[in-house]
Design goal:
The chain has about 675 residues and is of the alpha/beta class. It has 2 domains: about 300 residues, 3-Layer(aba) Sandwich (Rossmann fold); about 250 residues, no CATH class. About 50% of the residues lie in helices and about 10% in strands. It has 24 helices and 14 strands. The strands form 4 sheets. It has a 6-stranded mixed sheet, sandwiched between helices. The chain is elongated. The chain starts with a strand and ends with a helix.
Length: about 675
């Protein structure tokens, strides 16, 4: 096939032999899966319920004009005007342009497919339209919802975004996941019973009834639902609120032909209900191609075509590049505009010819004009908008907060999900309690039956420090992966306007609090009297309280490492080198009175120091006599002497507790700040 220029010279020649597939644009037959669209025509929109639309907005026309995107030279965000950078020789060098003056529009009742070869700009355009440009990319242009300038908050409130990667809390069941989504994504005025009815409706509509009580699963750890069911669950999560505008990034990626067709049928059905649906797709089959209402073909960051499939066939036929009979038009168009090794110049010439021809065509001029006019109210009024339509546009413009649920509702829902994930995670409960019991018995056996004599002083002090060290390392490494492992899920849900960062952080820490209160109590109960520590009942309860406080300080420090780390492996690598200095200044390996002045600040931040001193004061305070078991050796005469030898004091007991409480709060606050910073960097 050839594309002819104005002088009728071939621009590119591509062989189509051995690449033929049947292109069938006929309606689906009776053997098609349920929900298959049959035929085309006028769309009748009927809404029986309103599940959270803003201001009664049930239809959204999304337009964009002069969209440009540039690849930044650094990871930090730059202002849009800073397209140039100075090189070492003083000359100016332009950054790589990813999108070039892209115009377009998506209308209610239509399924718009963004197509193109790899690197054509499909994902970049979708990210720009949804205000999700990654770090290192700067963009400009105008985007409008029903003629009003779009903001990230308004777009988040009115749209749903089904991303290519499926991210879920794997320990939840399908139904539990959808209930959580309904609690945080549906309008706060909708009754709980109606939310649950909507959950059941979505489960039935997307054929999830058989797996609704099955856990989603964690790859390599917990077997769950299949890949197709997981993709349908992603759609179910987004359609719960019946959003008028939907974006989908490669919805058929990784699916077989049947499941891919089933997914596109779902999108087609949503469009026929009056929704505006925009999706990217790499190389659809002829059956999928026939289901699209509009095509936006991208090539080298430019618009090569935007219109219906029939208009696309006619447009390329007029250019001298007609699609051969019985050949998939999608393959034909993508192959035509894709770069081929050794033919870069010819490919660029072809892309420039096609994009220029479309920009000058009647369709291209109309789209550009409509995209520009959509930003001005006067032009929309002259176009015949009704008062009801303008009321909906005003609601879009006035909406500021992307959150559908109140703070309290978010907190209840996230806390409920966090508690489920804690209680249903076998590694967190069973293994940790088993570890606690085994370690406490081991320490109790090794230090069993200590007496208040010269040998017992050293052994008891060692047992107490081992007690302290175990509470630290066990609990830090138990939570060091909590936030970094769930970070992608949290960032996606937070940016989708489901809940706030403070709600997530508070809920996660509170859900795990009962575990961190129980574990030190179990450890103390088993090991305390086996070792032979101070037998007074009040001393046992004080030791248990101190163990719980030490555990929570260590947990807070683990949260800080987790929130500041980008991955679980990084957190596990960074944790020990940071903890060891605090342990060295705990008063066991290095006497507290001999700490160099220039390193004293580390000891003030060490919960080992405060915890060790508090536990030793609890043990030795009130002990008046200690037996000497070795001759010619000086032994401590009382517990007071033991404390003085270690440079500890009974008078510091209360300050030790206060300082550990301050460390507990300080580490938690710093962990939240770190999580907040990571959230903002991910925007």
């Amino acid at each position: 096939m050839t594309i002819a220029s104005e002088e009728q010279e071939p621009l590119i020649s591509t062989s189509v032999e051995n690449q033929r597939v049947t292109y069938n644009n006929s309606p689906q037959d009776g053997n098609s899966p349920p929900g298959t669209p049959s035929g085309t025509g006028d769309v009748t929109v009927s809404f029986s319920r309103n599940y959270g639309t803003i201001g009664g907005v049930e239809k959204v026309t999304y337009t964009w004009a002069d969209i440009n995107a540039f690849a930044s030279q650094t990871r930090s965000r730059r202002r849009f005007w800073n397209f140039w950078k100075t090189s070492s020789n003083g000359m100016f060098q332009q950054r790589k342009q990813l999108l070039k003056n892209v115009n377009g529009a998506a209308y209610p009742g239509e399924l718009l497919a963004i197509m193109g070869s790899s690197g054509a700009g499909k994902t970049t355009l979708l990210n720009t339209l949804t205000f999700r440009t990654p770090s290192g990319v700067v963009s400009s242009g105008t985007r409008a919802l029903n003629g009003q300038p779009a903001t990230p908050e308004a777009l988040t409130a009115l749209s749903a975004y089904v991303q290519q990667q499926d991210l879920f809390i794997g320990t939840l069941t399908v139904r539990e996941h959808l209930i959580f989504q309904a609690l945080v994504r549906m309008d706060r005025h909708i009754p709980y019973a109606q939310r649950m009815r909507r959950v059941q409706e979505v489960i039935s509509e997307l054929a999830l009834s058989k797996c609704q009580n099955t856990v989603i699963g964690i790859p390599g750890r917990l077997k769950g639902i299949s890949g197709g069911e997981m993709k349908r669950l992603s759609f179910a999560s987004e359609v719960l609120t019946d959003p008028p505008l939907m974006f989908c990034d490669e919805p058929t990626s990784g699916l077989d032909s049947f499941m891919a067709q089933n997914v596109i049928q779902v999108l087609k059905g949503l469009a026929q209900k009056g929704k505006t649906v925009v999706c990217t797709i790499h190389q659809p089959s002829s059956e999928l191609y026939a289901m699209f209402d509009k095509l936006l073909i991208m090539a080298d960051g430019r618009v090569a075509f935007l219109g219906s499939p029939d208009q696309a066939t006619e447009f390329f036929r007029e250019l001298g590049a007609a699609c051969p009979a019985n050949y998939n038009p999608a393959d034909h168009f993508i192959q035509l505009l894709a770069g081929m090794p050794g033919q870069e110049e010819a490919t660029r010439h072809t892309i420039d010819t096609v994009c220029t021809a479309f920009a000058k065509s009647e369709i291209g001029c109309n789209i550009a004009a409509e995209a520009e006019k959509s930003l001005f109210r006067e032009s929309k009024l002259s176009g015949g908008w009704t008062e009801a339509a303008w009321a909906g546009a005003a609601a879009i413009r006035s909406h500021r907060s992307p959150y559908k649920a109140s703070w309290c509702a978010q907190f209840r829902a996230v806390l409920w999900r966090s508690w489920l994930s804690v209680t249903k995670e076998p590694m967190l409960i069973k293994v940790r309690f088993l570890q606690t019991v085994m370690v406490s018995i081991l320490i109790g056996v090794i230090y069993f039956g200590q007496h208040l004599d010269q040998d017992g002083v050293m052994n008891i002090n060692g047992a107490i420090f081992i007690f302290l060290t175990n509470m630290t390392f066990q609990n830090i490494f138990a939570v060091i992966n909590v936030f970094c492992s769930e970070l992608p899920i949290f960032i996606r849900e937070h940016h989708n306007g489901m809940y706030r960062a403070d709600v997530y952080f508070l809920s996660k820490t509170l859900a795990e609090a009962p575990v961190f209160a129980t574990i030190p109590l179990v450890f103390t109960t088993i090991a305390y009297y086996m070792i032979g520590l101070n037998p007074a009942p009040e001393r046992f309860f004080i030791a248990s309280g101190l163990a719980a406080l030490i555990t929570n300080v260590a947990t807070s420090f683990g949260y800080l490492i987790s929130c500041a780390s980008s991955s679980v492996s990084m957190a596990a690598s960074v944790g020990p080198p940071i903890i060891i200095p605090f342990m060295l200044f705990g008063g066991f390996f290095l006497n507290s009175g001999s700490v160099p002045p220039y390193l004293s600040w580390i000891s003030y931040l060490s919960w080992f120091r405060y915890g060790n001193e508090a536990l030793l004061v609890n043990q030795w305070s009130g002990v008046d006599s200690i037996a000497c078991t070795r001759e010619n050796f000086t032994c401590p005469a009382s517990g007071q002497v033991v404390l003085e030898t270690l440079s500890f004091s009974e008078d510091d007991f209360q300050m030790d507790i206060i300082n550990m409480v301050l460390l507990f709060l300080g580490f938690r606050f710093l962990a939240y700040i770190a999580l907040l910073l990571r959230t903002r960097r991910a925007k």
